[in-house]
Amino acid sequence: MWQIIQTASPQLIKAGLKYTIPIALIAFAIGLAIALVTALIRLSSKRGGFLAIKVLFRFYVWVFRSTPLLVQLFIVYFGLPYLKIRGLSPHGIQLDPVVAGILTFSLNTGAYCSETIRASILSIDQGQWEAAYSIGMTRTMALFRIILPQAIRISLPPLANSFISLVKDTSLAASITIVEMFEVSQQIAAQNYQPLVMYMLVAVYYAVFCTVLTWLQGYLEKVTSRYIVAK
């Protein structure tokens, strides 16, 4: 068993550093940008034609929160090549596995994190807005100077949890041929006929990555809460 661990560990770590962590970081960064835009649009008080855009973003959130991530991956990677649109994509939309994975993870993360950000903004007392307006700030100025900094502190724990979950969810990328840690463990298990050892080993490495991220989350929470007075 120890020989298997010594042989497999470098391959698993390499796959984790080459695919698992980079895919999670890129997808989460893009997902956060999507989440912020989605949350702000859904909180906008504009009416008229803008209402259709709000409905569209609400539909996006509903779709990605109501369907399994694995199904979304299959639709993007295996399904889109069959989406043939004359003049736009006559041969379907064929994406590289890594691109398809990042796109799917980003959209899924954006849908979930948008609700976190939206709830954090709504949790800020209305008096904060009124105080900002009283000193001549516009709604945009109040949002970016007063409300969002407070909302970021509030949303940090659930957003960090979403990122940790995303790191674990990247194991689903094996289903679309991305050679990340779980896929490597499957390949090695098929060679040495020791699936229990391999799957337990890859579980340990996922646990190590997530533990480090949990420590980082705790540090960030302390940093962002250093000016909060305990009651």
From TrEMBL:
UniProt GO cellular component terms:
ATP-binding cassette (ABC) transporter complex
Q: Which domain of life is it from?
A: Bacteria
Q: State if Secreted is listed as a keyword.
A: no
Q: Where in the cell is it found?
A: Cell membrane
Q: Where do the TM regions start and end? A: 19-43, 55-80, 196-216
Membrane protein topology class: Multi-pass membrane protein
Going by the UniProt record, its keywords in alphabetical order are: Amino-acid transport, Cell membrane, Membrane, Transmembrane, Transmembrane helix, Transport
For molecular function, the Gene Ontology terms on record are:
L-cystine transmembrane transporter activity
> Which parts of the sequence belong to the ABC transmembrane type-1 domain?
17-217
Pfam families documented for this protein: BPD_transp_1 (PF00528)
Task: Show the Gene3D superfamilies listed in the entry.
Answer: MetI-like (1.10.3720.10)
Family membership, please give it: Belongs to the binding-protein-dependent transport system permease family.
The name this protein goes by in its record:
ABC superfamily ATP binding cassette transporter, membrane protein
